[in-house]
């Protein structure tokens, strides 16, 4: 899995790793993933051959369900590898995160998780983004998971988590039913506390290098601004369904 680890080791690594293109043909006449695409996924992910085959089947079902929910989704070519999942607010994607992976999190994080999968930044999830993204999401090593979380929290994708982004993330997670006259003051205090923990070079914002160093020193900081990875139990349950 050396390719995945190396490509996911920076803020641009994200879910799907590098942007080398997947082979165009995704299945043969029997509906099985083509040998060329299978080899690509085996090289780029932590999944076994059987798991990859199952994930491709799940993807095709999700595409069909998405199109049923959203008749306005962009049509894809006759090539199955070009099939895509539509918008980040799709009921199908939300259901997957909520129900399959027990992701009880805020809408802003849901959208950012989708963006972390969507390495082409075109508002859809292609089959290679789906399989390679889930490799990090479910089986990623420490570097891959750190890069994934950083990409989620870097709301404007400028390579830094700013005070404003921290405030937005923490406020959405924590301020539900304000009891104080100014609940935002408490959030501001948490932002300053987070900066003390994460901002290693003391420049008032958190770079990927800062975040990586902080997480290595204190692993609990990996999801400091909200849940963006599934629990171990949810991952094992999902993997067991792929193998059954």
UniProtKB/TrEMBL annotation:
InterPro entries in the cross-refs: EF-hand-dom_pair, EF_Hand_1_Ca_BS, EF_hand_dom, Recoverin
Gly residues bias spans: 7-17
SUPFAM superfamilies assigned to the protein according to its UniProt record, in alphabetical order: EF-hand
Region named Disordered: 1-35
Gene Ontology MF annotations: calcium ion binding
Domain EF-hand: 105-140, 141-176, 186-221
Entry keyword Membrane: no
Domain of life per record: Eukaryota
Pfam families: EF-hand_7
Entry keyword set: Calcium, Metal-binding, Repeat
Matching PANTHER family: CALAXIN, CALCIUM BINDING PROTEINS
Protein name as catalogued: EF-hand domain-containing protein
Organism: Megalurothrips usitatus (bean blossom thrips)
């Amino acid at each position: 899995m050396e390719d995945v680890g190396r490509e996911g080791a920076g803020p641009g690594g994200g879910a799907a790793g590098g942007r080398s293109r997947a082979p165009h043909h995704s299945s043969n006449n029997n509906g099985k993933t083509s040998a060329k695409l299978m080899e690509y996924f085996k090289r780029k992910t932590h999944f076994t051959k059987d798991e990859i085959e199952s994930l491709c089947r799940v993807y095709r079902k999700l595409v069909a369900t998405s199109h049923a929910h959203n008749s306005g989704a962009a049509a894809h070519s006759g090539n199955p590898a070009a099939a895509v999942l539509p918008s980040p607010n799709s009921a199908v994607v939300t259901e997957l995160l909520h129900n399959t992976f027990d992701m009880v999190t805020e809408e802003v994080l849901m959208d950012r998780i989708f963006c972390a999968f969507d390495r082409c930044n075109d508002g859809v999830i292609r089959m290679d983004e789906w399989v390679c993204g889930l490799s990090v999401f479910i089986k990623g090593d420490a570097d891959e998971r750190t890069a994934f979380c950083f990409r989620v929290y870097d709301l404007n994708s400028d390579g830094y988590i700013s005070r404003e982004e921290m405030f937005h993330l923490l406020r959405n997670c924590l301020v539900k039913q304000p009891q104080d006259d100014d609940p935002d003051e408490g959030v501001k205090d948490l932002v300053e506390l987070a900066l003390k923990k994460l901002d290693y070079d003391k420049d008032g914002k958190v770079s990927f290098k800062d975040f990586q160093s902080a997480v290595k020193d204190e692993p609990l900081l990996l999801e400091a601004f909200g849940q963006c990875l599934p629990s171990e139990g949810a991952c094992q349950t999902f993997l067991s369904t792929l193998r059954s």
